[in-house]
Amino acid sequence: MKLGVCGSADRAALAKAAGCDYIEMNFTSVTRLSEAEFEATRQTLEDNDMPCEVMNCFIPGDFPLCSPDLDVPALEAYLALGFSRAKALGVEIVVFGSSGARRKPEGITKGEAWQLLAPIYRLAGDHAAKQGIVIAIEPLSYRECNAVNTVRDGVALMNLAGHPNVRMLADMYHMGENGEDFEDILDVGDDLRHCHIGRPAGRVYPMPGDGYDYTPFFAALQKIGYPGRLSIEAGPPSKDPEKDLPVAVAFLREIM
Fold first, then answer.
1. Spatial distance between the Cα atoms of 3 and 20, rounded to a whole number of angstroms
2. Which of the chain's termini has less CB crowding within 10 Å, N or C?
3. Closest CA to 4 of 192, 202, 253
4. Tell me: the pLDDT tens digits for 224-234?
């Protein structure tokens, strides 16, 4: 299993020094760079020998995906540019969390929201497929999202979308915050394409002796023979990433 960390290109050197295999960058931020800024970002990654294999923060909140006011042509232009840049960086997975964009309006059910989201997932899947990229649906905690919360929600939406380039993500932090059973990962099986981790109750790097039992999460991954990537999506507990990230990486590699 490859281990990475979420962050911008200016964290590439830190990620490399800490022993990460890749960095997971922000899709929206990269898409909205100027051409000169994008080339500088690509060069920074190359100079630090730190690949960007995954991106998150896929669609910004100014694209209300469950609204009749959604500007579909503008969304398509955004997707086309973003995926072409992701491909140029060597990205293989794009995470679709995007709580602001997929927020459901008051007065409709989750199921009704999924009926609105499924065509968007198919549209995004088509753009991803053109670049050889897979989208991973990220369920988010009840505190952060009102449309897609649990791993079971994500699987239901994935099946509704029915696109081969739209698969699943499991985030240990969000599952822990929701009180989900990590064994639910077994129902995802081969459709699990990416994972995130952070310690629930604080959303900080997993660290030795931090009082949290990470073994049920990793046991579930082991049971399905998960071969993919795991990104640390959290902050340093001491507020010093140069101090904490190498410790967290070593700790997770020991568990893995």
1. 6
2. C
3. 253
4. 999 999 999 99
* Phi, psi dihedrals of residue 25, rounded to the nearest 5°: -100, 175
State both tokens at 55. Answer: 């991106």
**What CATH code is assigned to 2-255?**
3.20.20.150
For 110-124, what is each residue's pLDDT tens digit? 999 999 999 999 999
Closest CA to 137 of 93, 105, 169: 169
For the chain, the structural domain boundaries read 2-255
Please give the model's pTM, rounded to 2 decimal places: 0.97
Q: How far apart are CA 20 and CA 41, in angstroms?
A: 18
b/e per residue 128-163 (b: at least 16 CB within 10 A)? bbebebbbbbbbbbeeebbbbbbbebbbbbbebbeb
Taking a C-beta distance cutoff of 8 angstroms, is the pair 30, 41 a contact? yes
Q: Which of 164, 162, 66 is nearest to 111 (CA)?
A: 66
